[in-house]
């Protein structure tokens, strides 16, 4: 039996192109993975379940590195970082801490962010402003910051929710606070000690979008789509020198109403010339920005009807695919020509997916709807096609981008569902059956 199981696992490993999922938006920070040769014919009830576990509050995707899964959530008023065996779900270690938080405008009490794994460390940023660094192998605390106090964080609607970014020896975090009594939108800390390296001086407040790495004209940069609770509403795209925190450019983009947030992370959509896409769902819609060699930013095109809430769009062969719309019942999947901003088509996919999430693989595009529907899509400049679909569960607020690693798909059910199912993380086996 052991020999047969080992042979089966070896065949599975041979049949897929495996990759880790070390951070919120995947290994390349743009909701794509090089994994291929996956199960494309989805059974009606979904792929086989390898394991599942009840979870607490929280909307962040797990991180998976070297067969180890890191989950960040909230249980009984404490934020919990725990390590699980990615294949079996067996707990390896847990680190938790008290994190008092009361929502001002409703919504979840759990973290809005996902864990980041880099160089044997795990980094998390909680809803009340605690930043932690723990050892990946043991869960031992290495250092921590109460950022709300240490960096005088500004007001936020739904708690703090920008996932950190690790670039080399720096962990970069959007804080929208102050350093030495001067405004600082983003900071960089030493990954080993937690000591401040630089502060990007700008008054825009913290958003729910996550910093993204980018190389612009051979310079390592950080892209930050800033803007949160403020009166009047302010925010936009900051381009920051990753070495010293210098602001290279700032282009405003924010809804005209104060009760709004920027939540969709920026996406590098072209390298020659360098172009970046950002969007918000309230009134401003989408903006595509191009950078000159001196880092001056200019608007290439705008699309007010391409308003993304929190999802990150998928870029394929000159086209951008995204779910646009502020409300789940009116959201539609949209294809946009990246060169011109021209809308090619708009389709609600039968109304099943709401404000869904897209995940690109080497041989397809997965879509997870916010009510528990999973599908493989055929995407192109003509109308989309659902190739196969499954109903995983029936529950609202399935807003978490699924994580894919080594052929296993990790889906977060964030609210109780039909059949008395509780919030849980589910590991689906998406590995294709090897062909003889």
Beta-strand proportion: 35-45%
Characterize the overall form: globular
Summed up, the helix count is 2
Radius of gyration: 21 Å
Strand order, biggest sheet? 1-32-31-30
Low-confidence stretches: 1-14
Task: Using the coordinates shown, work out and report the CATH topology of the domain at 59-150.
Answer: Thrombin, subunit H
Please give the share of residues in helix. Answer: under 10%
Per CATH, the class of the domain at 59-150 reads Mainly Beta
Spatial gap, N to C terminus: 20 Å
> Would you count the extended β strands for me?
32
- Average pLDDT, to the nearest integer? 94
What is the CATH architecture term of the domain at 59-150?
A: Beta Barrel
Instruction: Outline the biggest β-sheet.
Output: 4 strands, antiparallel
What structural class do helix, strand and pairing data support?
mainly beta
């Amino acid at each position: 039996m052991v020999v047969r199981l080992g042979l089966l696992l070896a065949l599975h490993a041979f049949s897929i192109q495996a990759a880790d999922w070390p951070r919120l938006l995947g290994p390349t920070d743009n909701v794509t993975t090089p994994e291929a040769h996956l199960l494309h014919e989805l059974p009606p009830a979904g792929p086989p379940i390898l394991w599942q576990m009840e979870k607490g509050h929280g909307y962040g995707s797990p991180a998976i590195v070297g067969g180890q899964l890191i989950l960040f959530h909230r249980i009984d008023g404490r934020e919990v970082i725990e390590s699980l065996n990615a294949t079996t779900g067996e707990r390896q270690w847990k680190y938790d801490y008290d994190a008092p938080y009361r929502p001002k405008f409703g919504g979840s009490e759990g973290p809005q962010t996902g864990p980041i794994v880099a160089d044997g460390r795990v980094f998390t940023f909680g809803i009340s402003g605690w930043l932690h660094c723990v050892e990946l192998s043991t869960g031992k605390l290495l250092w921590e910051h109460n950022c709300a106090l240490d960096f005088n964080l500004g007001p936020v609607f739904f708690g703090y929710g920008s996932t950190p970014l690790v670039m080399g020896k720096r962990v970069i975090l959007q804080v929208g606070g102050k350093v030495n009594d001067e405004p600082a939108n983003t900071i960089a800390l030493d990954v080993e000690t937690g000591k401040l390296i630089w502060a990007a001086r700008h008054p825009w407040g913290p958003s729910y979008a996550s910093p993204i790495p980018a190389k612009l004209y051979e310079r390592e940069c950080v892209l930050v789509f800033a803007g949160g609770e403020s009166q009047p509403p302010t925010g936009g795209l900051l381009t920051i020198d990753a070495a010293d925190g210098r602001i290279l450019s700032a282009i405003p983009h924010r809804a005209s109403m104060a009760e709004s947030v920027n939540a969709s992370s920026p996406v590098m959509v072209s390298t020659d010339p360098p172009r970046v896409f950002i969007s918000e769902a309230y009134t401003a819609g989408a903006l595509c920005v191009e950078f000159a060699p001196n880092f001056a930013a200019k608007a290439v095109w705008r699309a007010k009807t391409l308003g993304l809430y929190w999802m990150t769009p998928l870029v394929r062969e000159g086209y951008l695919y995204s779910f646009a719309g502020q409300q789940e019942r009116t959201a539609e999947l949209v294809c946009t020509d990246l060169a011109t901003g021209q809308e090619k088509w708009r389709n609600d996919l039968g109304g099943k997916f709401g404000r869904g999430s897209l995940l690109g693989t080497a041989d397809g595009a997965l879509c997870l709807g916010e009510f528990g529907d999973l599908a493989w899509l055929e995407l192109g400049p003509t109308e989309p096609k659902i190739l196969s679909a499954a109903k995983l569960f029936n529950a609202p607020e399935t807003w978490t981008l699924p994580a894919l690693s080594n052929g296993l798909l990790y889906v977060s059910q964030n609210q109780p569902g039909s059949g008395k199912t509780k919030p849980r993380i589910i590991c689906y086996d998406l590995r294709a059956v090897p062909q003889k």
